[in-house]
Amino acid sequence: MGTVAVQGLCKSFGKVQALDGVTLDVPDGAFFVVLGPSGAGKTTTLRAIAGLDRLDAGTVHLDGRDATTDAPAARDLAMVFQNYALYPRHTVYENIASPLRARRRPSGEISAAVERMSDLLHIGRLLNRRPAQLSGGEMQRVALARALVRSPRAFLMDEPLTNLDLKLRVEMRTELTRIHRSLGATFVYVTNDQVEALSMADQVAVLKEGKVQQVGTPTEVYERPANQWVAGFVGSPPISLLPCHAEGDRLVGAAGWTLPRPRWAAAQDGRPLLLGLRAEDLSVERRASATLPGELYGLEPLGDRTVVDVRVGAQILKVKSRPTITGTPGEQVLVAVDLDRAHLFDAGTGLSLSEAGR
Ligand code: ATP
């Protein structure tokens, strides 16, 4: 078993409220990602679960038992940090074996566990080397193997891929998902990288300024963001947000455009709104039923696609387009909108108005 449940966690450092009522329920065997920008309280949340800091308020339950006042060692959790200090004078084998040696496990068990981990992380051929003879990516794998060699109640991982270059990060994302599946263990993983979160998690909790904004599957968080902030934080390029209001059967933009009012847009006429449009739900078109007139502002070729920036009033819309698209800045264009996939937020509270009505 490896369930982790935290309720109402509060923690201040002087005037900084790092955690402000954080409640999370991590099911047994989940790959649970806590996603948020720098300073959101991610590391503080992990440290609270591990019992490394005294909390101002809140409880931590592990496997259904109140562990709020348990010492860190009594919680049976393994923590993996971005900074993976290996013992420099020990071989890879000894580094991986060290947590089991510290627990005085029999040598047969240790060699079987090291072999299993090194197979899983594809580092079997490195077992006799010392850390100085490894690349950064290999060191990261060894550090992960050392953390994963035990079978604790759950693994707490604090941005363990941060020090890797982009190619290795992408590779390790796939590896970690595979390792998680084969271990069947609970992972609580914190990151500020939304791609990491969306690609690896079963469930994502989005954190901002010590408050949970939304918990859901990656698809739910991306497709049905609970508020404007989550919509803006998750997704690349970022969602475009256009000020507007409803007027009868139309949405009317502050820039003067109008669009048919989607049937799910249950907002009061005249109330200030933000229409959220993701780049992939827009296209530069000559003719379409729902369009926004704009001016081509710039093209950003990205290899497999080009992001076209279109100015609509004072806003820049990001439009994901085929890589062969051409155009000249200043040119008048129409942007077709897939309104069934659009989002609507209350401009005052930021809360989503689209989900209830769909
Ligand atoms: P990052 O992605 O940059 O690691 P984070 O989401 O993990 O950020 P935390 O490290 O949990 O954020 O910090 C949350 C807030 O608490 C920040 O404003 C941080 O400056 C503050 N904080 C964290 N630890 C301490 C500390 N020991 N003393 C003072 N302030 C702290």
UniProtKB/TrEMBL annotation:
ABC transporter domain sequence ranges: 4-234
Keyword line: ATP-binding, Cell membrane, Membrane, Nucleotide-binding, Translocase, Transport
SUPFAM superfamilies for this protein: MOP-like, P-loop containing nucleoside triphosphate hydrolases
InterPro entries hit by this protein: AAA+_ATPase, ABC_transporter-like_ATP-bd, ABC_transporter-like_CS, ABC_transpr_MalK/UgpC-like, Mo/tungstate-bd_C_term_dom, NA-bd_OB-fold, P-loop_NTPase, Transp-assoc_OB_typ2
Single annotated GO MF: ATP binding
Keyword flag Transport: yes
Keyword Zinc (UniProt): no
Pfam families reported for this sequence: ABC_tran, TOBE_2
The protein, known as: ABC transporter ATP-binding protein
Organism per entry: Micromonospora antibiotica
